Amino acid sequence: MKTVVLVGNPNVGKSALFYHLTRKYVTVSNYPGTTVEIFRGTANINGKVVEIVDTPGMYSLTPVTEEEAVTGRLLLETPPDLVIHIVDAKNLPRMLPLTLELLKSGFPVILVLNMMDEAEKLRVRILHKELSRRLGIPVLGAAFAEGRGIALLKKEINSMVCTRLGTEKKKRNRVSAFTGNSLENHREAGKILDGVFLKGTPDSLKGLEKLVLHPVGGLMSMALILYVGLYLIVGRFGAGYLVDVLEGTLFGQLLVPLMERWTDMYIPWLALRQLLAGDFGIMTLGLRYAFGIILPIVGTYFFVFAILEDSGYLPRLAFLADGWMEKVGLNGRAVIPLTLGFGCGTMAVLVTRTLESSRERIIVTFLLALAIPCSAQLGLIMAILASEPRYLFYWICIVGTVFLIMGALLNILLPGKRAPFFMELPPLRLPTIAAVTQKTLARMRWYFAEIIPVFILVSILLWLLGATGLLDVLSVKLTPVLQLMGLPPSLNMVFLYGFFRRDYGAAGLYDLYRSGTVSGGQLLVAAVVLTLFLPCLAQLAVMIRERGLAVSAVIVAAVAMIAVIAGIVINMLVSWPQL
Amino acid sequence: MKNMITLNQCKENTRGIIVEISSTDRRILGKMMSLGIIPGTTFLLLRRSSGVIVQIGYTKVALDTELAMLIRIKQTL
Fold first, then answer.
1. What is the chain A residue with the closest CA to B52?
2. Inter-chain CB proximity A122 and B58 less than 8 Å
3. Which of A238, A281, A504, B29 could crosslink A297 through cysteines, CB 3.0-4.6 Å?
4. DSSP 8-state code for residue A142
5. Percent of chain A having pLDDT more than 90?
6. Which of B46, B58, B67 to mutate to test the interface with A (most CBs of A within 10 A)?
């Protein structure tokens, strides 16, 4: 099968084109570095089946970040039959040098000028026929977000890949060709564009953008976004209202009693009955937690986050936060994996690839494992502590302090210094309902494909442990640790769940809170310890893959220790009568 | 040279020309180049706080002070 690789600077629309060609959805956002992996799919190009490869963005064939290197390696190791170089039309002057690099390395290239709609609004004119003549390759205008230019591109792909035979595959220059003089390419690009790229109206800061980038206005808009997005939508609506309806009414009053009655009637074996509908039953615990509690919270968070991503707000937040991140040895770029971590830590560890140095990747991985609760935890903790607003405030302060202290400590301990911060700020765009819905659903599908098997497995495991009496042994072992933190033994289970999945542990705590088993200061201690406590199994697996076993083991040991110490200290504080 | 300052010393809403980038780090040079920060290019400084935001062509680039200090510029207005 012929292979077509999509390349280009970060945030020019490669993934959007990938979707149009293959109908396979990969996350599309409005910030550089959304795609950190290579995705493959097949497309039917006017009757011919062709493999399409989506790549992480790159600025040049000589890479700086890990995600960029991925694309360079791919192009070298398996030279494709065609490279589609996608550029942001209005920024053609600084993107064309990559086209020249690709051409000089011997790849057959189609140049696609994407986001023509935005260029037109700015009255930028590009004479693409002349450009095509000067470059000697096809040049097409497009606006993938509105589906413009796709049909023409398909035709062009077809004539480039399907009609010409393999003989056209030129001998390529070797790796060294990749390091060609880029300043020279820039000069050359300038010459080629002379009289072809006509500038329009100049761009500057406007209304809303002025506000979000203002030192004070920026903080205020961030606070507003946190309040509306996290507290109102995820906390009150998702974790409050939706969980009440789904878990309380649908599962609690309808499905669970029904299951219990049904198994009582039809299943004569006690053991099997318990596996399905007992205390840790697949139906009564696993699916109830997954669909009743976690689904509404994670779903609302992904929705809010999708809006933020598509609006282009995150790179601006990165700029505002850069000064702060310096204190923990990071730069503003780290804001993106960290905010994604509030959705799902597993996803976020993967996105640390957009960071430049391994030092920063280790710090972020550590902080994600320790002090960033995932959305399900966050939503449930908000719901639990909402009854005691001051505890919610303490919780934020404590977790925030741990974040800062440990970040600062790592900054001192790890050799090297923070990488300089630079980032392109894409235009602020109004997110479309279709794109936001599509992304939210895609992420939820991914999330649930990941957790459902684990939930069922955990139910089976707990059931086995319970049946063999091992559960009691484990509980006895955990009880003294819990006692140190002033927590009742009933929380044993919560911590056991928490080890498998963070969201699961939080759901367990929520259950206990609802039944009135834990209260007051204990809730605060439990909430803090659960937040800090070990990352879940899925996150651990990604950590090991991305950071290696040794680093992950150290992180896990440190995180467990810090969580327990924090629990003991907070318990001492809340036990003081005056608090 | 007279009139020559670094980007982080530039006032908000002023224009200038990039004169040189005082670094020998190829990674930094390459990165700046790909963002359009090349000697001879004109820019508009949009924001200066803990870092700077400059408009170069149709690109807005955020840089921290450390990087901005490497960029020597001439103010035009």
1. A319
2. yes
3. A238
4. -
5. 37
6. B58
